[in-house]
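I have been asked to look over a protein record a colleague put together. Thanks in advance; the entry in question is below.
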Amino acid sequence: MAHQSCWFQTDLPKEMVDLIERDIEKNNFEFKESLLIGSVKDVKQRKSKQFWVPNTMWISGFIWHYVDLMNKENFMYELDGLDSNKFQYTKYEEGDFYNWHVDSGLSSHYLPVMEGNVGTDEERYADYLNVKTEKIRKLSVIVQLSDPESYEGGEVQIMDDTDKLYEVPKERGTIVVFDSRAKHRVRKIKKGVRKSIVGWYIGPRWK
């Protein structure tokens, strides 16, 4: 039986995680308030700060190694690459959180405008184009960057399709890969700061 969520407790040396953080932060990206899918801001649903990291950085290849490995061993999904060719570098400070949500669901996918085979040429073209080109999020990845001793709260919890709750290890360097349709949340930070890298791997719509 395949798993909805998996993780590697990579035992990365402290120096390696320090290097990842340093190489990202040396670019002086500006932290901005985190948004929901579709650039919607809702502080009752999500409160954190983030910036985007291009997948041209070496870190992208490092993360892909683990995602590809877990996909071959567990999910076996058809993947085309990283959503928007960017990772999200996220910072949760005291009081920050992200309530239950999914990274991919039917509500975020294209809805055909034609009814059966009836429609205008424009509607027919829109449906044809989207059916052929639409890519959806299939796998989500989280890289835990903060030392678990440096913050309280901030647990990442994932719920599978039987409503069983899993809590992701907090160990620094842990890489979590899970089905983007799985419900998950980040509990409120009680003290300190939690940093992570988040990304989504996309592929053709389920058939």
Notes: The chain has one domain: 5-204. The mean pLDDT is 93. Residues 58-75 form the longest helix (18 residues).
